[in-house]
Queue: 4 jobs
Job 1
Amino acid sequence: MRRAALPVLIAIALAVGCTRAHYRKSADRAAYPIVADREALGPGYGIGRRQLEPQPGSRLADPFNPDHPPKPPDDRAAGALMDHPYKFHGSRWWGKDGHTDLIEPVGWEAALAPDDRGTVHLNQDKSAEVALLNSREYQTALEDVYLSALSLTLNRFEFDLRWFGRNATTFNHAGLPEPNGSSTLTSNSDLGFNRNFAAGGQVLVDFANSIVYTSTGDNPQVRSNLLFSLTQPLLRNFGRKVRLEGLTQSERDVLYAVRDFARFRKSFYVSVAVQSGGYLDLLLAVQTLRNSEANLKRQEETYRLYAELFRGGRASVVEVDQFYQSFQGARQDVLNTRVALEGAKDQFKLVLGLPPRLPIELDVAPLDPFVLTDPKLEQLRDDLEAFQRARLQELDAPPSVEVLRRVFAALRGIAKNGPNAVASAGADLDAFGRQLDHPARPTDDPEQRARDRATYTALKTALTEEAADLEKATARIERDAAGVAEETRKAAWEASVEGAKLFLTALDGVIAVQTQARIYRIELPEVSVSQGPALAFAKENRLDLQNRLGQATDAWRKVTVAANALRGGVDVVASANLTTDPERNQPLRFSSELSTYTVGLQFDGPLNRVAERNAYRLSLITYQRAKRSVVELSDRIEFQIRQDIRELERTRASFAIARQQVLSAARQYENSRLNLLGPRDRRTANDSTTLALIQALSSLQAARNALAANFVLFEQRRLQLLLDLEELQLDDRGFPTNAAPRSSDRPGPGAPAPAPRAGP
């Protein structure tokens, strides 16, 4: 009985097998090197992180044992069906690994480094980093690469030695109870392997052992068989072309998957950092809100001024109502823009893999070029306008001498900032001048450069004049302040109003110079593209086109495989069965007298090949479709790149137009303000000044929005061109190595550097 027990124990041990962790790690050891091998096959095939499990700081990380995860929270109604399927009690062992109420790990937010208020601060790089760590889409795409490699391991295993070991032990009792009946214990064991060959052959080696015990007490019968079997096709299913097709396709599919993911990584970065719905799009929404808020501020200040002018009889009720309506429209615009920005933020959080409830704050430093006026100058103008409104409230009752002296002291305090305002505008104007001194670029319009030079000269003259006017206004304020007396109260009050108006008018001129200079300093990066070399570069390097070419070859190869199935079947079969004598009870002593040998041919005539015929015809059509698919993608790549170049050129032209529109709208606004604040005899009730001012404010906001939109759109299209050319390359972290503008040959303080070549 001991001999029978041994194979049973071995069979039980083999049936239990290894641990779950062993098989998981074994799969990883087989799959990861395959992916690494594919990455090394060509430039640009890198996929960065290959490790399937998310990093510990990720929201996607699983803190539990991956091989024995606890039972997650279940839906209540579905859980009842798990506990009582049909009329049975469910298994009591579902919870043997524990229970958890968690789907995502606790404390994953700490990896985002939020501030004390729980707000996560994001810039362009941090956004990409967060997305790479938490994006569900990215994790799924990486898993697809792993699964393609895992599938290949099974195809490879088909051509390795495949061992098997089996045991069947049975007890049989027949007849009456002993001693009249009989009982038999039988133990059958098999140990062997089979192997497939590249040319289509198959070999099987099987060592079979049988032990039989009976209750009669006789010696056990032991018999062994050593079976060899070989099958080799000669026509159908013969040859490496046919037999290795599945393995070949699987090997190539992993390469395609790696290329697809390598391109996906680039698209993923661009979508997170630049494209519509990405970080740069959010900055555009922020700038749009800033423009709306600036418009609202101007609308409110001008409306308050109209209200005071109305009290003094210098504005009609119609004009006040007109501007009140414009003011309310500006308020509504800010509300709408703010809601749109918050919605865009929440959508962006979903792209990053973050919950919408998580507060984020964007780094708006890239928007600095669109701050068209020094905040200190804006504050100076706000102080002057507040001073002016306060004086208009005193229209019918000039204040006392003591109050007038305090009024002039406040006005003198404001006026002493005049030189700083001129210096601030002068610095921006000088930077604009240095920008004009740079060598002309191929894309520069000579006529526009001449106009820009003329504009610079005019602004230089205007700033000098406005500086002189500020000095004159300051000197007048000093003189008027010294002449304050009881008998000159009304004249002194009028002098304070006039002095503030003169200073504000000159300050508006200084701000206008600075605004125009800063507008001219906003430049688009240079993109140098030659269409012919760019197209050649793209067709040589586009990963999806490489895949499409490979897939066309796959379809071509399958024509041969399908044609092979049309042939008749002729197989050589051979076998040998070496057997021991069961009477001798010697399991390894094979007897030639009891052994058998077989060799022969098996023939299957090609009399019924309708299914194979259809498959062959399908393979021919599929191949032609695959070739057309290559041509289609090649044409589409040409279209994409040509369209990218056209859109870049159009966006550059649109940006130049928007810049001129901002300049024009800013001049219209300043001119309308001068008309509003000018002498009373220059205005009459219901004149065109109010409508002109409303129109100027609306045009200025629209032009500023268009300028920012074209600036962002150009950057989006520049990165899209890099992506379409397959020139965009990422490092192992998933960050681009060549997306930022390269060193410029036109350095200048405050001016952005030119962009890299978009093509080779």
Job 2
Amino acid sequence: MRIGWYINRLRSMGPAEVLHRLDEQRRRIVSRRRDDGWKRYPSPPLHQVLRGLRDAVLAATPTQRQAIEAAAQNTLSGEFSALGQTWPRRDRDQLFAPELWRLDPVTGKLWPGPESHTFDIDFRHRDDRGDVKYIWEINRLQQLPPLAAHLLLAGDDQAGAAIEAAIDSWHSANPPFRGIGWASGIEVALRAISLIVTLDLVGDRLGAATRLRVGEILAASAYWLPRFPSRFSSANNHLVAELAGQYLISLALGTESAAARNALLAEVHKQILADGAGAEQTPTYAAFTAELILLCTAAARQAGKPFPAAAEARLAAFADFVAWLPRNAIGFGDDDEGRVLTLGDEPGYVRSVAAAIHGLLGMPGSMPEPDDFRSLFFGAPTAPAPAAQGLQTFVQGGLSIWRGEMNGRDVELTFDHGPLGYLSIAAHGHADALSLTMCIDGEPVLVDPGTWLYGSGGGWRDWFRSTPAHNTLNIDGKSQSIMTGAFNWSHKAVAALAQSERGRHWKLRARHDGYKSRFGVVHQRTVAQQADGILVTDQLLGGRRVAEIVFQLAAGLRASRDGATVTVLRGDEPLLAIRFPDAAVDIRAGGDAPGQGGWVSPRFGARQPAERLAWHGEVGEDGIQIHLAAIARSQR
């Protein structure tokens, strides 16, 4: 598998990237002989980065204070949860044992520690220890800013002692370039950001030895990040995190890095498209990228060198994009629940980031939740913005959204006609071209299946990002694009919007070429509003094939079939009627192997059976039609 992975990655690389990878390997070999140990990274004088942060936290509302205290008390009680898992509870007098930083909460096994050089640790292909995402999550030290906020607000000495214990333990257990904590640049950067925010809040309440250790961690991180950057096919959200880390560390060390600032500004326009959609084709990764840029925007303002208006306008475009997304079903593509500033579990993350953007920029927008932590850093929108209604198409992002009324129900429909993903490997994209999702009265009905797991996901990782798992057409159970690794694709379907008609009876038409080379046909889908519902027409241009058309239901819903019509119900309440061309509809949930039935992943690391409707039959240029209609509440 390791050899195959390298071969497939090489196929995605151009000559310049191959040379870069070879030089990167040379630098890693040199690092193995030279860069270990804290003595190489003395702590310089540290400077405040977010100067107004303390006053902002002291102005927290009672609801925000309660949320901060709850998060802090969880940490002080030895609790930590992330990515759908809860770590073993620790005693109050041993909150941060050295083994904590390399313990997998699922397998109970330990990843390599300071005895191993970080670049010798195979975290991509060794799944016997568990998914490396869990190890990295706790090493981000994102539990420290809530502890710092609690210390500032409540004067809780236990919080201060816990911060010192965590920093001292991490420093002792993770010398530079040793162990799994230094293996990835995004992790180096996010950890540094957590420490910078913590010092900005309560640095004067920490002991001199602890502040010295923070300075050493930041100095080592400042050395690491520019030497091993994510470039070429890897230059996605990882690069934004690395550049944000470099920029913020440079401010903390007293000298702004012009190189990091300029590179970060360039990425703003690459990774947030002109219409506000994310280039990686996943709203949650776009929000993560936007939050990193937003934090740097705030820091640049406070440093007296604000970012250009064009960069702030791109952030505003993303926030406006989010305003159109269905409130309770905004996910598609990968989602690993990456955050920058967080109290922990955040189901409304994307909207929180959008509200923070509008807050910092002084614009109306969707208001954050009353306990929102992020708004302490960036502020809240100046006023609520009216809810988006009607049809909106994001041309660069490749997504059309309709929000309106159908049979007395509020309906939100999305139609994906965008690219597979970003850059040559499209790492976080799913093979979901021409997929639909639908919410009725704000609750998900037809859904994207989600993510499940990354490195340890195995065949299930492939299923959740495959075409048969999404609400579109597939041929012979094959995906439109061809996977060649957990984060890699070789052949990539190219989708395009062919027609967009607004009005009372709007119409959208799009097509993709993912099946042309293998099956000689192009899939075209037309989605049109009619007086009594929405008509979906699927065509295969260039021939006839036996195909499958899928509608994946949200967990907790059930389907009842009467001839060619399937009624979707929540409990006893009918929500949606789907009229197929005939009764050749298979309805299944769960199964022991991928593809046996429907599954959804409501969050990273969680998986639930859910009914999957699959119509089978011949499709050609004449097309087949499927009718969707929300059911009025009074109908039974």
Job 3
Amino acid sequence: MSKDFLLEIGLEEMPAKYITASVKQLQERIEKWLAENDLEYKTTEVYSSPRRLSVIVKDLAEKQADRVEESKGPAKKIAKDADGNWSKAAQGFARGQGVDPETLEFREINGVEYIYLEKEVKGAATMDLLPEMRQIITSMTFPVSMHWADYDLKYIRPIKWLIALFGDQVIPFEITNVATGNETRGHRFLGGSVTITNPADYEETLLSQFVVADASKRKAAIVSQIEEIEAVENWKIPVDAGLLEEVNNLVEYPTVLHATFDEAYLELPEEVLITTMKEHQRYFPVVDEAGKLRPYFITVRNGNHEHLETVAKGNEKVLRARLSDADFFYQEDLKITIDEAVAKLNNIVFHEKLGTLTEKMIRVKKVALIIAEQLNMTDAQKGKIARAVDIYKFDLVTNLVGEFPELQGIMGEKYALLQGEDAEVATAIREHYMPTSADGELPQSDIGALLAVADKLETLTGFFCVNIVPTGSADPFSLRRSALGIMRIIQAKNWDIRLLSVLADTVEIERAEGLNTIPSEEVFEQVELFLQNRLRAILSDQQIRHDIIDAVVKAGSNVVPELIERAELLNKNRDAEWFRPTMEALARVVNISKKHQGNVTIDPGLFENESEQQLFDAVQKLKKEYPTLIIVDRLRAFAALRTAIDAYFENTLVMSDDEAVRNNRLALLFELASFIKEFAQIEEINVK
């Protein structure tokens, strides 16, 4: 027999951006608990709204299945004494199993007889197990939590009611003086309290109280209503997925409506209008067929269709005030020159241990020009880079960015163009913030990409220099994102940057500014490891095997695109017939070469067999060709060496008693190993 089980956590309104992840966490914890307790069920369904997190377990078994437990006890020679009586060991085993020793039997396992017991265990009743839901609820974690009243529990928002219903029976437990029951609450204004008599009626009962409990149905209703407005008004309404998700989690009973704003505000940059609508008011903008903004917006009401005209006027009033402020700020910003704005940056502290924004920009300029030199950029490009670095933070002191931080960089580009700056310089001002998330858009222009890398590398190194580093999940300055951004940009641009060289120069730039509170060598090692770990994340996302990632990353994270190409190539060929024997042969060379000491010149006159000469000739050929070979040809060259390596080890005793011969052989292997180790730490690759 089975019944449905409903768990609902009723709360004060939760932050919209955390609801989806929270209800998924609740579902996963319940499913894990069901598996651990061997409780059969059909499926789980999740429901959520601003005021509730709910899971229904469909067709949950009323009890655990009965099972037979098998236990192996002491061997027969230990279990019985010379007179055939049960020993203390056997009696202890019986007591531990809760059985009479006389019921014990023996079973032969691998030629030895042991006490063997099969015991039938009755499954526990689900009703007796479900109170453990209390621990599932209280153990949940959230990005933001709070205490309330005198309770010790820290939770996303105060718990107001609880439902734990198995069939028509309430599972009793209590959290912060809130006892479980079967009563839920409908829409805060349109609905009321209502009793759930059976979990199967949950969704329909809440709908009667103006709550669409299924978030996917709520979202579909919003999209459908937006599409209806599009058709009626002949508009285009771009639906941003992130905004739709947030709006969906702000309402329990969605009603979509449209309103308008003064057409004069269309003179403002579109980014200002869109940011004001989306980020501050959660409105969807309206565009024409060409994608140009129109003086309308879409909003979603948490309620029914009554008095929509009044609701629209209220939203228009709020947006009008916002746009009026934006227009004022924009007009005031147009009165400020870039040089005036840049001068103000000297009064803004980037970080108390890292100086002002002006001081940071000076350091970034030095890093940027080092990278430009490595990339062999022209003098004209270097000039644009220098100008971009001199001004790239100027919009941070503008009124509009002060009011709408989301517009940093965006307004910098626009203001720069309005004041006659070069288009590439203006674009770099916007692009240097990219990527703004782990998988965010990357800068497209070379100047913007270089500025982004220089800015992020200087930021990363600077914080490490003053011993401010990410710990666990705490990364207040987004240094992990900066490091990942550096790697992604270099990969996308396929830049042959000697990253470790640039890093070393950056550390010295920080030291010259007096920022180092820990030794430069330690900073270099820490930042290198930090960058390596971000490279590992990129390779792992590409489903590259972890041992191959280790082999490539440990070879050094100097030229990022080349390292990624090596990892991809090794991973692609890992199942090829030649791969395993080649890796084994190369690893053998590397391992034995570690015994090489001193600076020994290889002397072919000391060779004692043809295999030594053949390997020597092959290594000299590799040495000559290696610098001009592309990555795939380098791997092919190593594969071609396998026959010579195998023959060498078959016919040659490397560790000869003759010291000169021994050192000569180790020197040959050491020279070959230097090429292998530059390609990858082959010994890290698992070929078993």
Job 4
Amino acid sequence: MRAKFLLLIAITAQAVYAQPKAKVTVTDLTRIKQVGGIELAPDGQRAIYALATIEPNPDQKEEYEYKTHIYLTGLKPGDGKALTRGPESARQAVWSPDGQRIAFVRTVKGKGQIFVMSLDGGEAWQLTNGTYGVSSPSWSPDGKRIAFSAGLTMAQMLTDSLVNPGKMGPLWSLEKPGFSSNNFIKSDKKIKPNPDGSLAEVRAYLEKDVEDKKAKVFNRLNFQGESTTEPDMNFTHLYVVDVKEGATPKALTRGFYSYQGTNWLPNGEGLLAVTDRDSLKHPDREQDNIIVYISADGSGTRKAILSEAGKSYRAPEVSPDGKQLAFLVSPSEGVNFAQIGLADLNGSSVSKIELVTFDRAPNGLNWSTAPAAAKGKKGTTGYAIYFTASANGGSPLYRLDPATRQVTQLTDFTAGVTSFDVNGNRVVLAKTEVANPSELYLTDATAKAQTKLSNHNDWVAQRQLSQPEKRTYKNSLGQTVDYWIMKPAFFDANKKYPLLLNMHGGPTAMWGPGESSMWHEFQYMCSQGYGVVYANPRGSGGYGLNFQRANIKDWGTGPTEDVLAAVTDAAKENWVDTSRQVITGGSYAGYLTAWIVGHDNRFKAAFAQRGVYDLTTFLGEGNAWRLIPNYFAYPWAADAKVLDANSPYTFVQNIRTPLLIKHGENDLRTGPIQSEMMYKSLKIMGRPVEYVRMPGATHELSRTGNVRQRIDRLLRIYEFFERYVGAEAQALTQK
């Protein structure tokens, strides 16, 4: 009897194991959970992290909400537990130096506030209750204070006695024509608004119209935000508060400037932060950043640590012993990326500044004790710096030895490390890979053996996934271009399939198996029976500075050569139906989509998303306008023929490929006007074109934004292509 029972269990298990895997569906987007914000405890025995999820909106059917909550793990597989829950998200969690408490940010009445939670039990209690929303808490080394950031509007700055003690205007000019100083911002409340009165009364009337939102008056350069125009500026200041209930925060910074990137010195007497270099230049015009020392006593003492004209310093990270400073530095303008800098640190001064040779763009510098294997070696200090960098289709973890300046790659290009922390010989990281979009892992200083700690996305194991195959191409500049080909998820060698060329934006973005934002879109299209090919053409990030600069004054022809070489090679596969090729891309790749269909007729349909199509007018239509002087020149200083020759709109009359154009209604990064112009022009010429506008959506729609609109966007890609290369279209062609 027992033998029959065991046989039955074995047969049942085999049947379950043999069950076919399911498609990746469009609504699987809502099931993806993202791990981030990792912080190892001071003793290295535990870690906290943030988990971002998409949840159904309980009050609105078919709508969703983004939630973020904090989890604690004892670094054992599957032992993670939620520390926070409920309708309000919790984020930016950090350990106290003694490892007994955490501080984090939670929204209260629309404003971010800092909460403190003891890990011995009990509820979190609210530390701050400020007028302004706060963020980025950072414990002092003795655990008695927390530094944080708060954002103020221009109007709030003018009346705040802590950050603007004299309640004066900025030293730099507000650039209002006809006024030699900023005195106009001081209005006399005794003057009554009167449209028919004196000049002073008329000015009071006009000021009231602005207050009542009947008018927006612009005098600043960067007036375009992400979703709306912004006549007034915002400023970020630093504060410190004692970790006691009812404590009053103390302002550490003052004036009409912003500060970010704070890092405590080990003695607790001061912090390092990043701000504008020239205090007399309008912040919209100042591109140089400096690293400054700020006294933690609230005296307002400030001293420049690293400052140089034409340079942008950021991300100061102090070594645990306070003797070394790591930072990032780059030219302030042009097509560049940052380098790692190292310096000896003595309180509020630096010496022996050196740059590390590393031809990628580093991120997330993090000091730790050096790995045990390195200790005692000649020229090796007791510390190491860990960081990530986009490279060759992934985002590996790297380790830098400050003494030898040697960089070691710890993880491979097939995965992307999206968050990490390190303590001694322990590394906890979150990564994305083809097999799983985001999970938490424990490893050591070598990162060779990794133990999976979380199972937030284990549902993916029940989906049929497509594995990308990497190939390379040598372009006309002699550069090696990486590209990947993905077969349809349910591949049958006896069938033919449509092929989708999907392109990235930026233009300095980079795609690959370790890039997280496209995981769902690639797998969804493969599940729908499409092959997918994507490439990193010249101008992409992740391949060094020369490669990244290879599309200066050449946004169209050169990158087109690279992506078309990839799709041409993919089309040689026996399973590809070459008569059913389609193309899409967003932002710069929306530009490239329109450019390609204006020069090449191989594609049966195209979908251009949130693109730029006329470089001669882009300067005024989006907040990404600096791309024009960085890659070309200002229109009045440039050869007009170069801008025209690189504008897809110049070739609009050549577009005969059926084209779907999409733009977010509130997208001010690229601006929707150019997409309207493309649509209208093609419509006038009677070409097959459709235009989709997403109400309320910004430029980030493919990554964030309203979840229902994100689903809509992906479905529209699929549905539009099906009209021309799907089964119904194929059946009509064969009749």
